[in-house]
Amino acid sequence: MKNNFKISIFGLGMLLGMTASCNKFLDVVPDNAPVLDQAFAMRTMAERYLVTCYNSLPLNSSVTANTGILAGDEFWLSSQSTYNSYNNWKIALGNQNSDNPLMNAWDGNNGSTGLWIGITNCNTFLDNIQKVPDMTDAEKLQWAAEVKFLKAYYHFLLLRQYGPVPIMDKNIPIYDPPGNSQIPRSSVDECFDYIISTIDSDMEYLMDDVTAVNQETGRITKLVAKAMKAEILMYAASPLFNGNTGIEASVRNNDGKELFNKTYSIEKWQKASAACKEAIDFAHGLGKHLHTWNAVGSFTPQTSTKYQMNTREAFSESSNNQEILWLDSRSIASASYQGAFMVPRFTANATSSSLSGYMSVTLNLVEKFYSKNGVPIDEDISYPYNSRFDLVTVPSTDGYRFNLVAGKTTSRLQLDRENRFYASLVFDAGRLFVNQAGSDANAYNIDLKYAGASGKVDPTNYNWTGFASKKHYNYQNTVAASNVFTARLFGYPVMRLANLYLYYAEALNEVNGPTQEAYSYIDLIRERTGLGGVVDSWLNYSVNPSKPTTKEGFREIIKSERTSEFALEGIRFWDLRRWKDAVKELNTPILGWDINQSAESSFYRPTVLYTRSFMDRDYFWPISLNERRRNPNLVQSAGW
């Protein structure tokens, strides 16, 4: 069977490990798209139409196109006028509306790709692929299976965003009466059943995993299908969709049809648990495992550096990363993208034109990382939580000097935190380890105060909270003389094995409560970052030592674990919704340090940057006025 997709269409392998001094994205939009009667006349043209089916996948490595990265509480921007085009951030600001919704994947505007267009393209492909004369039957079956997955996945993305949606398994002929296209919403259970059955229907024809990295990266494989099926079933089992009795679930079709099953079902968690285990076992059978870092160069790194780099590279290194189960080959973290997250002037050469650093991490998220003992800082019996904002002097001992600048005055909050804290965050009086520094002992010292090297100098591009992201900046990037920024590109991971591990632990807990098996999958992730096991950590360091032994307590731990492990990746935004925790978590003020101050005593003050609100109606997007006018059978989302 031929799998020789062109590198300009799918292949990522040649880009992984390459460097770029400018913004280069893969061009996946076919030029001069053929009319339908030509599209399936030969294999090469059908291949281009296949690429078109992939083209509605969200562009995760775009700051403005990734909804989750800016619509929640992980990142914040400095100016509504400067970043007026950032529609995802406008959602966080509370500017969503029902006439012309932001990040509108239904209509394909205001920052989002059109998912219904993607579904239409998939249906067209499936209706015509058998006509192609110069393809084998096996190849047709594989391509059709890929497209069936995409069609199901696009339905899921709509369901996740809008709640119950119409099911469009076949395209409606263009000359049909208008009423034939005025399809009402299907129920939530009908949507999930359709999505899962569509994924399952032809999964056997998918290749197990990518084998030719240069040509196949980004294509749908059996590994991808099993992993994403597990995620979809996790959503089906979660409180937003499983037994939801809130106002967001009160919407009914015009004929009175209930769209939400308000009765909680343990069976949904059982299905999710089984799917997670099946996907994990399949991934293990293909040699997939949690990523660990191999240092570039001859120096011997500190143990803490190894733990931190395990976390950083799990997200920002695509080459030989066996943790990534689905790598989006359309979403390439370019030089400009990485520069948006990294503070400028951390070296004399790192000027603001190459590293803008305007993607600022909120103090809200910063506080959620564990202490060095692997429990929340407000639970740790040895952590001075009530004085966490007091000023202290950084000790010069090895336990501190590789993470913070010895002798500097800083906030107590930034000391004695878990390795994922130091792996994920750049902050004042902290240190930035990159390969260019030569070793972790020579890591760059960060000064983010007003008069500091990385402080507020540029009138528009500056860090607004006092915290930036290490995760989005590959540690092999270099900034040479004359501001030559050379970035090591990486593809955005849609699904990591760590995600499946935590999904599985969550599902097991909901079915049976805490079990040794559930502990074991969380402990694997904690071990990778240098933390002790869940049970021992809470027993030895928490004010609530029995917390892991109850379903409710262990549920909280799993949520905290997901927050730390996937911090800044845009996953938390969607987790808070499926858990129905967004009303609680997203109704607090956005906080940061006072970056307009030079003295430590003034800089290290929690400062309210924005007061926001999140209502129950915000769990689902509204449907635009134009679409509701076109289709009167399409009822509006509740509360809008």
Describe the fold and architecture:
A hairpin with a 3-residue loop joins strand 11 and strand 12 (484-488). By secondary structure, the protein is mostly helical. Helices cover 35% and strands 8% of the residues. The protein has helices at residues 36-39, 43-54, 67-70, 87-92, 115-128, 137-162, 188-201, 213-216, 222-237, 266-285, 303-316, 335-339, 363-366, 398-401, 419-424, 497-512, 516-528, 534-541, 551-565, 572-578, 582-585, 600-603, 625-630; strands at residues 19-20, 75-76, 324-333, 360-361, 391-393, 409-411, 425-427, 431-432, 444-445, 467-469, 478-480, 484-488, 490-496, 590-592, 607-610. Helix 6 runs parallel beside helix 9, helix 7 (188-201) runs antiparallel to helix 9 (222-237) and helix 10 (266-285) packs antiparallel against helix 16 (497-512). The protein has a three-stranded antiparallel β-sheet, with no helix packed on it.
Rg estimate, integer Å = 24 Å
Main sheet record: 3 strands, antiparallel
* Uncertain spans: 1-34
User: Which class of secondary structure composition applies to the elements?
Assistant: mainly alpha
Q: Helical region count?
A: 23
Determine the oligomeric state from the structure. single chain
Distance from N terminus to C terminus (CA atoms, Å) equals: 50 Å
Mean pLDDT: 93
- Number of DSSP E strands: 15
**What is the overall silhouette?**
globular
Order of strands across the biggest sheet? 1-12-11
Strand percentage: 5-15%
Helix content: 25-40%
